[in-house]
Write a structure and sequence with these properties.
The complex is a heterodimer of chains A (347) and B (287). With 347 residues, chain A is an alpha/beta fold. Chain A is built from 15 helices and 10 strands. In chain A, strands 1, 2, 3, 4, 5, 6, 7, 8, 9 and 10 form a 10-stranded mixed β-sheet that branches. Chain B starts with a helix and ends with a helix. Chain B has one domain: MetI-like fold. In chain B, strands 1-2 form a two-stranded antiparallel sheet. The chains are: A alpha/beta (347), B mainly alpha (287). Chains A and B meet through helix 3, strand 6 and helix 15 of A and helix 12 of B.
Chain lengths: 347, 287
């Protein structure tokens, strides 16, 4: 009996050794890639992709630091790219191996440089912007026409319990900082003091800090106005003509998820190939159509439906982009922003 | 009880596995948690440098409101559970054997479904366009949907629903053993039903209430899941604050440690109070 197990174990080891296909370990957000692309890549490069998913940057970082299995590629949001760089977990990119790097939108690369100076460690994957999603049935047009973060503080909402903001310190404080005329990454005492004034004004109306349920709640009338990610809002708007979305005229925060090759990766060459694959215009187009977020691969725009690329709620105009800023990792200053958000939440 | 040293040695031997288990998997980890409270927070975890900031913040009032909310919630939940559970437990205890078992199974049935699924059902039930509002509007009791979801009321409703069995079962086990002939005796001696309840039934079931309070109050004080899923995210309970401190980057594990230690102190205080009250009422009962 003992021998049989031993033989089985040896046999299985042999089998593993035989299937000499290289393996690429990819760790991505759930539902964030067209699954057909994975099998196509496997076929083309004669490899196997072991694909795992996560639901928050925090969980991703905990996993890659804690687990013995090493991943090759991860897809952190901008500020978490900075954290990976600072902690020495990200591999510095060899641009000579990224033949499709030129396909990327240069304006977005500039924005990405806010968290990854010189784009040395990360490649944009998908991106988006925060705005306001509303229900046309309940909101008067003149309020929407203000096109401003200030709507959150409007007396129209007093005692109505119909306004939500995202459950995210950087997004909420970021909106207030923008309103006060500061950069979203400014954590100076002066800027935060100014932001606090707006937050206290808005807090009277805000019923909820929520990053998830609002999508359905604006649609069903539980909420009338929500701070919202443009991608989420547009998905809902496709199904419900009562919904609308606006960007505040003051500007807004941008987020970007990025591809990062980990320093600990065992198959970096294959990882580079996968990045190049994702940057092919045809692949980027299909992936964007599946995921429904804007792609940073400018070379793919020509292949896409014009109604998509001309929608300025997804592909923002160049002028509006000037007013938008990428959320950057702030190190210990982030504590001050967290504290302010906590102060608003707890009081 | 311990008549000779031999049997007491045996007692220790029998208790040893439990004691070792508790030491290794409860006391030691708790000690580690305690130590983390005196370290310096770092982005992901902690720096091993002595730091008193967490405890300073614990006592300077920053987290006063979550603590007050948690204590209020735990007390409300416990009281409501006692009020609802007592008559139920009493009825079950006095029912005939056959019905008794059926009733007990009915109490336990909710445990067969996962807690998270039950909470999500409540979300559907209570939401703005949910089942409850729909029914109330159809029968004409209200004309506008009520805002129940994401309020403190929703939290209390779900809390009472979830913790009720933990109060019914210990109460039932005490009431079942109650000698009901005592009540007949009391009535024969001229006490009315109300008086005999307060003089006999209630004092004799105090231990059941105490056990139920332990099972409800302590978990209710540190609850996270229910307020997170049905509660107002603008009134955070201690359990939620602890989770944020552990999870959100930049993390603050020392603060999470200090807060959970604060909870432990609160539990200890309330337990001691309850214990003293129980002792007192017993002494009075005997006299």
């Amino acid at each position: 009996m003992k021998y049989r197990i031993l033989i089985l174990a040896l046999l299985s080891m042999l089998l593993v050794a035989c299937s000499n296909k290289p393996v690429l370990y990819v760790f991505n957000w759930s539902d964030y890639i067209d699954p057909e692309l994975i099998s196509e890549f496997e076929k083309e490069f004669g490899c196997q992709i072991k694909y795992s998913t996560y639901d928050s940057n925090e969980n991703m970082i905990t996993k890659i630091r804690g687990s013995r299995q090493s991943f090759d590629l991860v897809f952190p949001t901008g500020d978490h790219v900075s954290i990976l760089i600072e902690k020495g977990l990200a591999e510095k990119l060899d641009k000579s191996k990224l033949s499709n790097f030129a396909n990327l939108d240069t304006q977005l690369l500039e924005k990405a440089a806010e968290f990854d100076p010189g784009n040395e460690y990360s490649i944009p994957y998908f991106w988006g912007a925060t705005g306001m999603m509303y229900n046309k049935k309940h909101l008067p047009q003149e309020l929407i026409d203000k096109q401003s973060w200030a709507i959150f503080g409007d007396p129209f909402f007093k005692d109505k319990r119909k306004v939500t903001m995202l459950d995210d310190a950087r997004e909420v404080v970021g909106a207030a900082l923008t309103m006060a005329g500061y950069d979203v990454n400014n954590a100076s005492d002066e800027a935060l003091e100014a932001a606090k004034k707006y937050l206290e004004e808005w807090d009277v109306n805000i019923t909820q800090f929520d990053s998830d349920s609002y999508k359905n709640e604006v649609a069903d009338g539980t909420t009338w106005l929500a701070q919202a990610y443009n991608g989420d809002a547009l998905q809902q708007m496709e199904q419900n003509p009562d919904l609308g979305f606006i960007f505040p005229k003051e500007g807004t925060t941008l987020w970007m998820d990025n591809i990062v090759i980990l320093k600990s990766s065992q198959s970096k060459d294959l990882a580079y190939e996968f990045v190049n694959f994702l940057l092919r215009p045809e692949v980027a187009k299909r992936n964007a159509e599946y995921v429904q977020y804007p792609t940073p691969v400018k070379a793919a725009y020509d292949l896409m439906d014009e109604s998509v690329t001309s929608n300025t709620d997804i592909y923002l105009t160049d002028e509006y982009m000037e007013k938008c800023h990428m959320l950057r990792y702030l190190g210990n200053d982030a504590v001050k922003i967290n504290d302010l958000f906590e102060y608003i939440k707890l009081n | 009880m311990k008549s000779n040293s031999k049997s007491s040695r045996l007692d220790y031997l029998l208790a040893a596995p439990t004691l070792i288990w508790l030491t290794v998997f409860f006391l030691v980890p708790y000690f580690i948690v305690l130590i983390y409270g005196f370290l310096t927070p770092d982005i992901f975890d902690v720096k091993f440098e002595f730091n008193l900031d967490a405890y300073r913040q614990l006592f300077d009032g920053t987290y006063f409101r979550p603590f007050v909310l948690s204590v209020k919630l735990a007390i409300t939940t416990t009281l409501l559970c006692i009020l609802i559970a007592y008559p139920v437990a009493y009825l079950i205890a006095r029912a005939s054997d056959k019905i008794k078992n059926t009733l007990l199974i009915l109490i336990i049935i909710p445990f067969w479904t996962n807690l998270i699924i039950r909470i999500f059902s409540w979300r559907i039930f209570l939401s703005y366009n949910g089942v409850l509002n729909d029914i109330l509007m159809r029968i004409g009791l209200i004309s506008q949907p009520l805002e129940i979801m994401r309020t403190d009321l929703a939290v209390i409703m779900v809390m009472v629903y979830v913790y009720l069995p933990y109060m019914i079962l210990p109460l039932y086990s005490v009431l079942e053993k109650l000698d009901f002939t005592l009540l007949h005796a009391a009535m024969d001696l001229g006490a009315n039903e109300v008086k005999s309840f307060f003089k006999i039934t209630l004092p004799l079931s105090l231990e059941g209430i105490f056990a139920g309070v332990l099972l409800v109050f302590i978990p209710a004080l540190g609850t996270y899941l229910i307020p997170q899923l049905v509660g107002d995210q603008r009134s955070l309970y201690v359990g939620q604050v602890i989770t944020y401190k552990i999870k959100n980057i930049p993390r603050n594990w020392p603060m999470a440690s200090a807060l959970s230690f604060g909870l432990l102190i609160l539990v200890a205080i309330f337990l001691l109070l309850g214990y003293i009250l129980l002792k007192k009422s017993k002494v009075r009962g005997v006299a």
